[in-house]
From TrEMBL:
Family: Belongs to the MurCDEF family. MurE subfamily.
Organism listed in the record: Sanguibacter inulinus
Keywords: ATP-binding, Cell cycle, Cell division, Cell shape, Cell wall biogenesis/degradation, Cytoplasm, Ligase, Magnesium, Nucleotide-binding, Peptidoglycan synthesis
Cofactor(s) essential for the protein: Mg(2+)
PTM summary: Carboxylation is probably crucial for Mg(2+) binding and, consequently, for the gamma-phosphate positioning of ATP.
Protein name: UDP-N-acetylmuramyl-tripeptide synthetase
One cellular component (GO) term of this entry: cytoplasm
EC number: 6.3.2.-
Length: 540
């Protein structure tokens, strides 16, 4: 998890009265407070600024009203809440012994029976005057590929001369303003502020990742996407959603008239096929050819691997087609690139214009931080974000054909998240690599050794069951920096070391404390150290 400060806000805003904000959420306000002006809307107390309206609604762990005092201390001037929140606020004021002559904090009260989760999006969209309407908006969802596809959209739309704003796991970008992200999809109030910042910066198109959590938690309320895209669905986040059906249902909600105008669905897994059959907005389908899937409206053909990358054709059944090139490795990146292309075409750009723009831009090869990012070449070290079974399998599969020596993988599993994927990832690592180094990811408050044991159980079981002649070394090493170092130092020049799971992340959270850790930095340092040792050995 990235530890990042603040969030993007527009430099100039139109203050709004509490009375008008109350109308926007169908709430009520004391007549004496109706004309109070607020200059921002915020959902997290840590982001509160002077003049803000603090939205205090219940979450999974606590009620936001518990943090109202912190928001007020930071300068918030009013609180929007439900009845439970009002009770908490009043109880707190009594507990701290507010003098009876002091007026209670101004409150916008949500109507009884309303869904408090809707409040932040509705209030912030109204406050910033519905900034999404100034943008053409692309939203990407799916278990894997969201970040990569939004970078591909960004690259393609920029090549088409558009001014692109980006929202996703790695960063939030509006014009020259860039902030590392805390979440893949920010909370509803922060998101509306980001969109208003984009409007102020002259951004005219949005490329955005939409996580399943964000759909369930209504973080994307107040936004109506022009085109949404679905990459794939596989096991992840079961700690939050419970089972795959519910995980799918959360993603499928993006493909409804409330959230989007039209959609593009990759058909390469059963979930994409199910989504295409059930979506209630116009949807076009795309097949890439993984696992013998049905042919979609659009399909990928004539894939040619070469030293300068992969060239392929994305063709429609009506005869339209685009021939493009990418240097991003792995078959999954053909799917991501094809999805970005079709989403742009479905937004109304014709294929000739797209092809010409890409020719001028030299193809579809954006740098995507921490996604199959090669940080050294002897041994080749690749840092990737694969942190679930499907992504890990595909990342290893992508590297195998170009690895002359052994394929080494260093990875761990996240604490306090989906525990069922741990042994599965251990097994997948053994199936795809020759050396498996199990280490730590973000343990959070869980005991790291216990997490490693669960991954190792799956790995050792698979190693024991491996076909004769296929010897896979399964090792345990921690902390993570040491595991990366050990793997790199033990590698031969022709080996590939895949460091998977954390990609661009620069903090490791252990028991509530963020420790600086960047896999790319650790890997480069280890490679430099290894080179020095080799030189020394040769000179002795
Ligand atoms: C499980 C989950 O998604 N939780 C998110 C959710 O928290 P919650 O419902 O538990 O809220 P809570 O902690 O009970 O707090 C209740 C209210 O008090 C407020 N509060 C809370 C604490 C505080 O100090 N001050 C404060 O104002 C919160 O803003 C919230 O409105 O709402 C919070 C406010 O928006 C989020 O910060 C929080 O993200 C947590 C930190 C998180 O780790 N989320 C991850 C799992 C997540 O959302 N991941 C997806 C990507 C998944 C993927 O595809 O890989 C993402 O979009 O990033
Ligand atoms: N289309 C795809 N199908 C399967 N795996 C993919 C795909 N695209 C990328 N991957 C793998 O998944 C990892 C994560 O990719 P990416 O960051 O683009 O996805 P994401 O959906 O944004 O992930 P997250 O939501 O966890 O941030 C990559 O590092 C790569 O290993």
């Amino acid at each position: 998890m990235t530890s990042a400060p603040g969030s993007l806000r527009p430099a100039s805003v139109q203050p709004r009265t509490l009375g008008d904000l109350a109308v926007a959420v169908s709430g009520s306000v004391d007549p004496a407070d109706r004309d109070l002006l607020v200059t921002g809307v915020v959902l997290g107390s840590v982001d509160a600024q002077p003049g803000d309206l603090f939205v205090a609604v219940p979450g999974a762990r606590s009620h936001g009203a518990r943090y109202a005092q912190a928001a007020l201390d930071a300068g918030a001037v009013a609180v929007l809440t439900d009845e439970a929140g009002l009770d908490l606020l009043r109880a707190e004021q009594t507990a701290v012994g507010e003098p009876s002559h002091q007026r209670p904090v101004p409150v916008v009260l949500l109507p009884t029976g309303s869904d408090p989760q809707r409040a932040a999006g509705a209030a912030a969209a109204f406050f910033y005057d519905h900034p999404s309407t100034a943008l053409t908006s692309f939203g990407v969802t799916g278990t894997n590929g969201k970040t990569t596809t939004t970078y591909l959209l960004d690259h393609l739309l920029t090549a088409l001369g558009r001014t692109v704003g980006l929202v996703g796991t790695v960063e939030t970008r509006s014009g020259s303003r860039v902030l590392p992200s805390r979440l893949t999809t920010p909370d509803a109030a922060s998101l509306q502020a980001v969109l208003a910042t984009m409007r102020e910066d002259g951004v005219d198109v949005l490329a955005m990742e939409v996580s399943s959590h964000s759909i369930s938690q209504r973080r994307v309320d107040g936004l109506h996407f022009d085109v949404v895209g679905f990459t794939n669905l596989s096991q992840d986040h079961l700690d939050f959603h419970g089972d795959l059906d519910r995980y799918f249902a959360a993603k499928a909600e993006l493909f409804t008239a409330e959230r989007a105008r039209r959609g593009v669905v990759v058909l390469d897994d059963e979930w994409g096929q199910r989504l295409a059959a059930t979506a209630d907005i116009p949807v076009v389908t795309l097949s890439v050819g993984r696992r013998g899937t049905p042919v979609g409206d659009w399909s990928v053909r004539d894939v040619q691997e070469g030293p300068a990358g992969t060239t392929f054709t994305v063709a429609h059944s009506d005869g339209r087609s685009m021939r493009v090139r990418t240097t991003l490795p792995g078959s999954f990146n053909i799917a991501n690139a094809a999805l970005a292309l079709v989403m742009v075409v479905e937004s109304g750009v014709d294929v000739g214009t797209v092809t010409a723009a890409l020719e001028a831009a030299g193809g579809m090869s954006p740098a995507v931080p921490g996604r199959m990012e090669q940080v050294a070449d002897r041994p080749r070290v690749v840092v990737d974000f694969a942190h679930n079974p499907d992504a890990l399998a595909l990342a290893l599969e992508a590297l195998r054909p170009t690895t002359a020596g052994r394929l080494v993988v260093v990875f761990g599993a996240t604490g306090e998240r989906d525990t069922t994927k741990r042994p599965v990832m251990g097994r997948i690592a053994v199936e795809g690599a020759d050396v498996v180094v199990v280490t730590d990811d973000d343990p959070h408050a869980e005991e790291p050794a216990g997490i490693r044991t669960q991954v190792l159980d799956g790995a050792r079981e698979a190693a024991a069951a491996a076909l004769p002649g296929r010897d896979v070394d399964v090792l345990e090493a921690a902390p993570r920096a040491l595991a990366i170092r050990a793997a790199v130092l033990a590698a031969d020049d022709e080996d590939t070391v895949l460091v998977a799971g954390r990609g661009h992340e620069v903090w490791q959270e252990i028991d509530g404390v963020d420790h600086p850790l960047d896999d790319r930095v650790e890997a480069r340092a280890a490679v430099a150290d290894r080179a020095q040792r080799t030189t020394k050995e040769h000179s002795e």
